[in-house]
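Changelog note: in this version the structure field was regenerated for every chain. One regenerated record is shown below for reference.
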Amino acid sequence: MNKKIGWTATAVAVFSFGLVGESAAQVKNASKPLGAIERKDPRFDALVPRDAKLMVVAEGFDWSEGPVWVPRQGCLLFSDVPRNIVYQFREGRGVEEYLAPSGYTGNVPRGGEPGSNGLILDPLKRLVLCQHGDRRVARYEENSKRFITLVDRYKGKRLNSPNDGVYKANGDLYFTDPSYGLLKGNADPAKELPFNGVYRLTYGGELTLLTDEMTFPNGIAFSPDEKTLYVANSDPKKAIWMAYDVQPDGSIKNGRVFFDATPWANEGKMGLPDGMKVDSKGNLFATGPGGVIVFAPDGTHLGTFNTGVATANCGWAEDGHVLYVTADMYLCRIPLTTKGKGY
């Protein structure tokens, strides 16, 4: 979310860079609770301990996004989209810069939201970034300190600004492509596609448009059995989460509204449907109006981590029982009883 067929053969970005070791002066490590936890359904208690609190571990970001846990490094990586930086957080060391630039490698300064947004690990546990400014999905090669373009065009036209993605077990990447990274959004003259799409990039490199019917597709996640694909729509006029049946060939069909939070947005609750993650039982932890909203697989609203600010994304970490949350200027975490999908 903003603060709110052609496939390009794999190519190496011409911009390379090194790691930055020192913490940014404007970022502060912290330890304090944020907001309150609202329990709506008895099933919530089996997921979130009664004494659990959402704790701020760092603050001072412009718009934090895309948290992903990197097991081999024992750290959490996350984006600050306007600052064009990926940060890393380690217990005992706090926050340090990891990649700068993260999403826009051009030489002409620009404003808006140029940095990386969603961060994910590919099947080989390499970092993949949805890059707003460069309008592509790219893999970061740690040894050579370079970006490798995975995809940046559809039918010869540049993507808008890839936002978030999720890998299927077979290695296919499903990702969203709204226009938040363009300086003027949908009205930007640089926008080449007449829609905002949801795509599948196969392991072999074939790009397929799955749907162009969502106004602002954003967060994306699979159910544990990968038979359902969830996609958030960050449109205040249609603040919904969609669910689709995943077909044997990887396409999607039977789209239906999983939950409609438009009334919450109309009430003035902070945030819109954005990033989300699924636990091992199929419950959704989805950022949206009010904070992190927890849904049962049947769409029942179980409870909310009410952050009090617009909340961007969340990600499983550590042993799978910890959820990190990026909420506006904050990086937060909360221990849970449930465990994340994939752990």
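Spot check on this record: The chain has one domain: 26-335. The domain at 26-335 is CATH 2.120.10.30 (Neuraminidase).
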